[in-house]
What does this fold into?
Amino acid sequence: MRNCSSTQRALQAARRHAVITCKICGGASPLFDVVDFYKSCNFRLYRLGLSGIAVGYRQFEQCAFIFTEFFDDFTADQWKRYVYNDNYQDVDPGY
Ligand SMILES: [Zn+2]
It folds into this structure.
């Protein structure tokens, strides 16, 4: 029986290869890039270091729209806690 982390990795791998259709044109969307969750808009891209949490981005083949489904299930509380918190201006100075 798999432990929790190996199951989680298997699920993430399956998700990377899942066919997701574009919400705009209906085209296929292969994995385009993966960045660490702590990547920011600050000129020092990884000002906070690395979180170890991979955020995958897809690029739809027909319309070139780039998109992540990583935040689709984020709650309002998670947005406040993990993204738009008291330190947000440090990672997005132009905000
Ligand atoms: Zn599209």
Summary: The CA atoms of residues 9 and 15 lie 10 Å apart. Residues 4-17 form the longest helix (14 residues). The chain has a mean pLDDT of 83. Helices lie at 4-17, 76-83, 88-91.
